[in-house]
Amino acid sequence: MTIKTKVKISSKGQITIPKKMRDKFDSDYLEVEQKDKKIILQESPSVDQLAGSLNKHADNKQNIPKNEVWSEHVKEKYSSP
What we know:
By secondary structure, the chain is of the alpha+beta class. 36% of the residues lie in helices and 17% in strands.
């Protein structure tokens, strides 16, 4: 189902996503992509949802702090090509 509506951009560059659209998402995070004159909002997993994927990267032999491993993992997984 497609839902289409018009929203206003505030003076701070913010928009309000209508509740009927927000309720369709399982996450509080969105990935924002700009393509030509379009802005595409796509659901992105929250840090809590990604936490389980850290375990396979955290058991490293170099004793790198987990937060550094996590940061590198997120960059690798979600950076643009």
